[in-house]
Amino acid sequence: MKQLTSLIYLSKGNLPSKMAHTIQVAKMAQAFSQNIKDFELVTSGDILSAIQGMNSDFQNWYGLHHQFKLVRLPIHFKIEYPFPQNYENEIFYKLAALYACLKSPSVIYTRTPAIAALLLKMSVPVLWEWHEPIPEGASSFYQTILKNKKLIGIVTTLPQLAENYIQHGFLKSKILVAPNAVDLQNFLPYQDKQLARKKLSLCQEDKIIVYSGHLYEYKGIPTILETARLLPECKFVLIGGWADDVQRVQAICQKSGLSNITLVGHINQIDLASYLHAADVLILPTSRYWELAGATCPLKLFDYMVSRRPIVASALPTIMTVAKDKYNALLAEPDNPISFKEAILSLFENPALANAIAECAFQEVQNLTWENRAKQVLQFITERLQAVDEDVVSYRIGLMKYIKQKVFSPINNYLPSLQSSQVR
């Protein structure tokens, strides 16, 4: 059996960012690094960050506990972090693909379709993680990826997405369904409600409903605002969002006279636990009208579960693959503030139910960790590598090693001296 000894994860190039997918990338990278000695995460950067690699700012942004090799290709002279919302850079895609080929790892992993397509065009085996459906009448771009024999497989988060890929001709045996997960260590030590509220200067007597995530309308923000209007005795704390979105929601609250909503804005992952522990109820009101409502596996759901606070979530089929009504959450009708109001009130009126579903969610999420997910993915990669054409792979790896020896090794030898000189 072919041994998996090295893995390079090519990101979209936008770490650190406020985009939720970058949290997933960083957490999976940390988990991969704990299981593969030769691991690298590649993103873009500027000259200074390329020399620094992994630093404390990056670790705190994503709540990372272990340092691993972070390669920041210096395609910018100087850039301000975090990266902007719609960051795209084709130069990074090409340089990242070239860099990975020169390093000749056992496998290259990516969530970026453009990078996957580029590598496959070069006959390089790729494992692609993708969390969106292939649209009907899919362009030749997606078909080219799916039909390429060098695509080792696809990792996705939901059985609904796997079914979509199968309908577009992809083999079931080449698909791994692995839900998103949680970093348990970010929620240790556990904070009781009083301690968390004291830390955050929140009133001990308030009934607090917490939402964590972006403030896009399709995330259910209008539902939260209307639910807050229906529950004036409760305080709603919203964590996250781009600055423009925070200002937009603040303006709506002022115009509507909603005084029971607090907008915190973006926080580092390392600070998230205190806000969730300070809550009486955690709310996840994803809209059914979002075009990707049938493909969402929210990271916040798993963070909510580990916080030991009761959850009220939209009864969407995708969310219901994890959240079960009156078992580990209460489910409300999407886009229906009255339904959310009733669910929240039922938790305040029935503390036994609130405690029971919160404890059940906490127990279930103990196995849904990034470490376990990474091991599952690595096992899948190892098995799938056996199905790749051995002759083609041997040829490509031999070529990559030759290029690495002739071209990349001198660069590698130069960088340590450059770094040491910077330290001095």
TL;DR of this structure?
The protein is α/β, with parallel strands linked by helices and 424 residues long. The chain has helices spanning 20-33, 47-52, 56-62, 90-103, 113-121, 140-147, 159-167, 193-200, 221-230, 243-256, 272-277, 299-306, 337-349, 351-365, 370-385, 390-423; strands spanning 6-10, 38-46, 69-76, 107-110, 126-129, 151-156, 175-177, 207-212, 234-239, 261-265, 281-284, 311-314, 330-332.
List keywords for this structure.
424 residues; alpha/beta; Rossmann fold; 2 domains; 7-stranded parallel beta sheet; 6-stranded parallel beta sheet; 16 helices; 13 strands; 16% strand; globular; disordered C terminus
Describe this structure in words.
By secondary structure, the protein is of the alpha/beta class. Helices cover 45% and strands 16% of the residues. The protein is built from 16 helices and 13 strands. It has helices at residues 20-33, 47-52, 56-62, 90-103, 113-121, 140-147, 159-167, 193-200, 221-230, 243-256, 272-277, 299-306, 337-349, 351-365, 370-385, 390-423, and strands spanning 6-10, 38-46, 69-76, 107-110, 126-129, 151-156, 175-177, 207-212, 234-239, 261-265, 281-284, 311-314, 330-332. The strands form two sheets. A seven-stranded parallel beta sheet has the order 3-2-1-4-5-6-7, sandwiched between helices. Strands 10-9-8-11-12-13 form a six-stranded parallel beta sheet, with helices on both faces. α10 links the parallel β9 (234-239) and β10 (261-265). It is globular, with a radius of gyration of 23 Å. Mean pLDDT is 91; it is low at 414-424.
